[in-house]
Amino acid sequence: MALIELHADTLESIIAPDSIVVIDFWAPWCGPCRQFAPVFEAVASALADIDFVKVNAEERWDLAASAGIRSVPTLMIFREGILVYRQPGTLSAQQLTSVIATTRSLNMDEVRAHAEHSLSHQE
Questions:
Q1: Residue range(s) defining the domain that contains residue 12
Q2: For every one of its 123 residues, what pLDDT tens digit does the chain have, with 9 covering 90 and above?
Q3: Which positions are catalytic?
Q4: Which CATH number does the domain housing residue 29 bear?
Q5: Are 85 and 103 in contact (CB under 8 A)?
Q6: What domain count does the chain have?
Q7: pTM above 0.70?
Q8: Directed axis angle between helix 93-105 and helix 31-46, to 10°?
């Protein structure tokens, strides 16, 4: 899929339960964000079966706040609607590709079981 710049949509509207979604929270004044942008775009163009989404945290402060973003850039990866990766800072193209490969190889039954177990202990 093409690179998506999230403006009016909500995060829930783009996190599909049957796909991988990579989200880059960034800001125009952020030097590391500007350095990471070409890496994000290059990996996005190489992996057409994954949704890559950019969220300008300055314009969409509501989404950034609801996602708990405290610094930019922050990268989040969802698989089958579950957050499986969250990390502030930048990655090289090789690192980003490696994280995505790891995401693809996850046993989602185990991830769901872990998530359910974690939720049950929070209550």
A1: 3-122
A2: 557 777 666 777 778 778 899 999 999 999 999 999 999 999 999 998 999 999 999 999 988 998 999 999 999 999 999 999 999 999 999 999 999 999 999 999 999 898 887 766 665
A3: 30, 33
A4: 3.40.30.10
A5: yes
A6: 1
A7: yes
A8: 50
